[in-house]
Amino acid sequence: MNLFLKKIIKGNKAIKLEFCQNNLDLFLDEESFSLFKALFNEKNVFMKEYQCLNECELCKKKPYAKANGKVIDAGNFGELLSKLKLLME
């Protein structure tokens, strides 16, 4: 497991992440895919993908997720994962 992924999952806080499938289709790149996929296996991270999260204006502009109900966005998917990592620490 690489260092970035270890940093993402080392926190003890439970976090509920929600992703819009349309947004993932637009912004999830090959570089970030393995890190994204690894989150599904972590015990303190609860993830769910939805067809739509009703954030359509944001959705077509940049990657985002809802973390414990709060919208988190970023310029690219790698940056989004980094922001989510900070929430878990």
Distance between the termini: 18 Å
Q: Which structural category fits the helices and strands?
A: alpha+beta
Number of domains: 1
Beta-strand level of the residues, as a percent range?
15-25%
Number of strands: 4
The percent range for helix content is 40-55%
Overall shape: it is: globular
- Let me know the largest β-sheet: 4 strands, mixed
Number of helices: 5
Description:
The protein has 89 residues and is α+β, with helices and mostly antiparallel strands. The chain has one domain (17-88). The chain is built from 5 helices and 4 strands; from the N terminus they run αβααβαββα. A 4-stranded mixed β-sheet has the order 2-1-3-4. Strand 3 and strand 4 (70-73) form a beta hairpin. The radius of gyration is 12 Å and the shape is globular.
